[in-house]
């Protein structure tokens, strides 16, 4: 906007005086130089130095200013209406009026902006008293919704009216309409009349008014840019609208290397500064060509100098254009404007035209504008309302209703051919900084050469402003992917379709080759292999025949399976799949839990398949368990997609697998599954249930701090491990703190405190005979196993030292099954560690007939002296 406002009267020709009048409200008022009169209390000059209506309730308001007009005249102005116009919400801009009160019966001409329906257009009217007649209309629908526009009107000596407009609010005017009318020659007033409802009484904004001499253009156009849109078409961008090119003028353009002149030339219907050329021959990909242009004129007949520009036809490949920075939560702002944005980076050596490209954020798809990114250049994607403030940082592409989730979303960039170029599923834990995760800081990609690195290649910006829009990222450094991909899971979609998921994004062409998969049991190669976009971490195999329940099949991977960075999966890798069976009680057990993680770490719940069945995790849920009512609440779904768990396999559920790996590294990362939520687990005590999706209880356990090894200095970050899956999870004696030597947790691995039941050679058996309860994961517990001829026995187990002194009341009158076991962790009745030495395990058993049997066994509690 201009910052000056003047009123000039110029003597242009002898005997004739013309006025040149303008107002850009840079002085902060509309009461002087020039003076506006009318409903002045209904208007104000806002903080952006623009004239804005400021009324209350519904009504009609007008302002007018004295402006002498003549037969040759130009008017221009900027207007913003932040609503969809209608017959009750519109504006009239009076170019000529014979009196200042525009609400009276005046004689003159006005532009009407707004009407009922969706065909709103700029329309020129002649008003004679109370009657108005339409002279011409512009593009239908141009003003159908909220708009910001710059309009120019020219009146010539012969009475011709010409209307031009730039829908972007700039000065690249395109013709809208024209008419001839000579009813009124002169008028002394220019003005505005706004009709509005109460909801729009402050939503008309005006600026940059001009009325005066016709401003002639004597500046020749320039050819700024040439871009290959396809193998036989070019887009040319000029500095201003150019004259149409007809079939007889195609020789004005020529391309070297035998391409010659185009066979067709068309201006962009919405931007006449852009021209499209089509050729009969195809360009060679990545070959440099030279376009020559001569004889080009603008709309005013100014000739462009003969120009030669280079161009290259390049088909964008995967990762040529990257999602490079994400400002998902700009509040509170640190040093940048408080707006969300996505930064795209051209990682190639070629210009990339964005015509036809799209960006999807979750399920919302938005098409990019016709802009071109230079090699190693940037563009910011943001909301329309953020465009002006982000424009100083880089080229901007604004959208209506642009929004990013603070916690995470899948963002996918696609080319005009619907090819996935880059996809990022960001999450808030990628910040790796609890403070910056609260807002004001962007997520930045570390190494553009590792575009599939996910959380390993993203972190919070380290720039003092909170981000680096339009610049090399502050965290930029080499961060190569040196890890080979693996198969992370297999799922069954139905008896003919198997899904295979990988640990990383893979080469989609390799995934789609059926000969790369060999399946045993006589199946052979799949009929088809469909790589699942946008991340290409999954392939769906359609089998030639149905698979049978009860059989376990293997897939052998052949060929070179590569991730985004070219790392290859182990040749000849084999994985299993089968039709899953129904899960029933105790097929799966809760095997390990971490309910009080260390700061910055994650809870987890581990399950173990103790059955001989192949089961499917997609039918399972976890919940909080009420031990009194037997009812589960706060149920969390675990796995939406099919995911098999085989006999003897461990699976861990957590809300953040990368954090879990950082805090408690697992040698079985394929056994870690990230879920949106887990049941609430208090740091002191609670109860967890494992259920089928139908609500059928499979297993449950209670936990408390008291179940931890009492000699631990701190329980934080220490998991509870189930000692044996055959013993009840509800038995607190069947749980023990994970060993320090195992890092205090063993996610997706056999528990460090796993106690194998001894071979029963007697009614009561102890193992090991020498145990050392020091939480090192080796012989930490004494297992007291029993085997009775029949169930229904009640047992009491008491521990004495070698002198016969009572040490621990381990079991008191407990109902037993035919077989089972108890565990002593070396802790006495005072919750202190018993001293080194020999101990007597005294077992008393009452059978259903009232017979009493007594057993004494000995074991040695060992330790370091």
Summary keywords:
42% strand, seven-stranded antiparallel sheet, single chain, 865 residues, elongated, nine-stranded antiparallel sheet, mainly beta
SSE layout and pairing:
Layout: E1 7-13, E2 16-23, E3 36-38, E4 43-45, E5 51-53, E6 59-66, E7 73-81, E8 90-97, E9 106-113, E10 122-129, E11 131-137, E12 147-155, E13 160-166, E14 174-180, E15 189-196, E16 204-212, E17 223-230, E18 233-238, E19 253-255, E20 264-267, E21 274-278, E22 288-293, E23 307-312, E24 321-327, E25 341-346, E26 352-353, E27 358-361, E28 364-367, E29 372-373, E30 378-383, H1 387-390, E31 395-399, E32 408-414, E33 420-427, E34 443-445, E35 458-460, E36 487-494, E37 497-502, H2 508-511, E38 517-519, E39 528-532, E40 538-542, E41 553-557, E42 574-577, E43 588-594, E44 604-609, E45 615-616, E46 620-626, E47 631-637, E48 644-645, E49 650-654, H3 657-663, E50 672-674, E51 685-692, E52 697-704, E53 720-722, E54 735-737, E55 764-767, E56 770-771, E57 782-787, E58 793-801, E59 806-816, E60 819-824, E61 837-846, E62 852-861
Parallel strand pairs: 30-31, 49-50, 56-62
Antiparallel strand pairs: 1-2, 2-16, 3-6, 4-5, 5-16, 6-15, 7-12, 7-16, 8-9, 8-15, 9-10, 10-11, 12-13, 13-14, 17-18, 18-21, 19-22, 20-21, 22-23, 24-25, 24-34, 25-30, 26-29, 27-28, 27-32, 32-33, 34-35, 36-37, 37-40, 38-41, 39-40, 41-42, 43-44, 43-53, 44-49, 45-48, 46-47, 46-51, 51-52, 53-54, ...
């Amino acid at each position: 906007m201009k910052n000056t406002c003047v009123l000039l009267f110029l003597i242009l020709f002898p005997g004739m005086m013309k006025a040149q009048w303008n107002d850009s409200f840079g002085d902060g008022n509309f009461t002087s130089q020039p003076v506006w009169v009318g409903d002045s209390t209904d208007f104000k000059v806002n903080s952006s130095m623009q004239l804005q209506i400021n009324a209350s309730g519904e009504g009609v308001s007008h302002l007018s200013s004295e402006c002498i007009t003549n037969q040759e005249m130009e008017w221009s102005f900027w207007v913003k209406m932040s609503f969809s116009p209608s017959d009750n919400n519109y504006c009239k801009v009076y170019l000529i009026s014979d009196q200042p009160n525009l609400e009276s019966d005046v004689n003159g001409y006005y532009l009407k902006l707004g009407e009922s329906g969706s065909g709103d257009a700029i329309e020129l009217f002649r008003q004679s008293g109370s009657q108005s007649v339409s002279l011409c209309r512009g593009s239908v629908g141009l003003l159908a919704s909220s708009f910001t526009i710059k309009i120019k009107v020219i009146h010539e000596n012969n009475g011709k009216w010409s209307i031009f407009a730039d829908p972007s609010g700039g000065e690249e005017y395109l013709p809208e309409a024209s008419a001839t009318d000579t009813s009124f020659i002169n008028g002394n007033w220019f003005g505005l009349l706004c009709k509005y409802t109460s909801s729009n009484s402050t939503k008309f904004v005006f600026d940059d008014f001009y009325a005066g001499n016709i401003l002639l253009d004597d500046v020749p156009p320039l050819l700024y840019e040439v871009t290959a849109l396809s193998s036989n078409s070019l887009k040319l961008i000029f500095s201003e609208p150019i004259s149409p090119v007809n079939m007889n003028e195609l020789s004005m353009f020529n391309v070297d290397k035998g391409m010659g002149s185009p066979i067709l030339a068309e201006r962009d219907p919405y931007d006449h500064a852009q021209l499209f050329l089509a050729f009969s021959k195809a360009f060679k990909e990545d070959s440099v060509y030279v376009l020559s242009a001569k004889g080009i004129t603008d709309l005013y007949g100014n000739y462009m100098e003969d120009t030669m520009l280079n161009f290259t036809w390049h088909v964008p490949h995967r990762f040529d254009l990257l999602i490079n920075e994400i400002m998902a939560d700009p509040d509170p702002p640190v040093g940048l404007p408080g707006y969300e944005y996505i930064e795209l980076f051209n990682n190639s050596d070629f210009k990339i035209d964005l015509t036809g490209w799209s960006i999807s954020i979750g399920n919302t798809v938005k098409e990019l504008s016709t802009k071109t990114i230079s090699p190693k250049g940037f563009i910011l994607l943001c909301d329309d309302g953020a465009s002006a403030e982000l424009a100083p940082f880089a080229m901007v592409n604004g959208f209506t209703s642009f929004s990013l989730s603070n916690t995470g979303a899948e963002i996918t960039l696609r080319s005009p051919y619907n090819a996935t170029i880059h996809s990022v599923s960001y999450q808030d834990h990628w910040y790796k900084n609890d403070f910056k995760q609260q807002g004001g800081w962007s997520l930045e990609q570390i190494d553009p050469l590792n575009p599939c690195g996910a959380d390993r290649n993203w972190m919070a910006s380290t720039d003092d402003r909170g981000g680096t829009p339009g610049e090399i990222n502050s965290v930029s450094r080499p961060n190569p992917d040196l890890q080979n991909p693996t198969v992370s899971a297999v799922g069954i979609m139905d008896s003919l379709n198997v899904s295979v998921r990988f640990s990383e994004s893979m080469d989609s062409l390799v995934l789609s080759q059926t000969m790369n998969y060999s399946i045993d049991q006589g199946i052979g190669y799949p009929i088809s292999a469909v790589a699942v976009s946008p991340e290409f971490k999954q392939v769906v195999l359609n089998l030639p025949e149905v698979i049978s329940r009860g059989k376990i099949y293997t897939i052998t991977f052949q060929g070179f399976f590569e991730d985004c960075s070219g790392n290859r999966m182990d040749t000849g890798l084999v994985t299993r799949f089968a039709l899953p069976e129904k899960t029933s009680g105790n097929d799966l057990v809760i095997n390990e839990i971490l309910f009080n993680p260390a700061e910055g770490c994650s809870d987890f719940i581990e399950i173990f398949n103790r059955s001989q069945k192949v089961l499917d995790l997609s039918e399972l849920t976890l919940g909080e368990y009420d031990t009194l009512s037997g009812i589960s609440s706060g149920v969390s779904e675990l796995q939406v997609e099919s995911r098999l768990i085989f006999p003897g396999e461990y699976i861990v559920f957590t809300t953040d697998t990368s954090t879990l790996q950082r805090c408690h590294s697992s040698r079985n990362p394929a056994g870690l599954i990230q879920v949106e939520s887990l049941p609430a687990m208090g740091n002191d005590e609670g109860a967890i249930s494992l259920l089928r999706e139908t609500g059928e209880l499979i297993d449950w356990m209670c936990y408390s701090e008291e179940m931890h090894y009492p000699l631990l200095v701190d329980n934080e970050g220490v998991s509870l491990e189930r000692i044996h899956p055959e013993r009840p999870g509800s038995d607190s004696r069947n749980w023990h703190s994970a060993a320090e030597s195992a890092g205090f947790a063993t996610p997706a691995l056999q528990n460090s405190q796993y106690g194998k039941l001894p071979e029963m050679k007697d009614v009561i058996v102890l193992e090991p005979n020498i145990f050392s309860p020091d939480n090192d994961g080796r012989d930490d517990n004494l297992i007291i196993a029993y085997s009775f001829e029949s169930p229904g026995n009640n047992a009491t187990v008491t521990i004495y030292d070698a002198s016969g002194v009572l040490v621990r009341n381990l079991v008191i009158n407990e109902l037993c099954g035919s077989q089972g076991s108890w565990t002593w962790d070396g802790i006495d009745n005072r919750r202190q560690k018993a001293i080194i030495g020999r101990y007597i395990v005294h077992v008393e058993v009452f059978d259903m007939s009232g017979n009493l049997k007594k057993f004494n066994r000995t074991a040695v509690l060992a330790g370091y002296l």
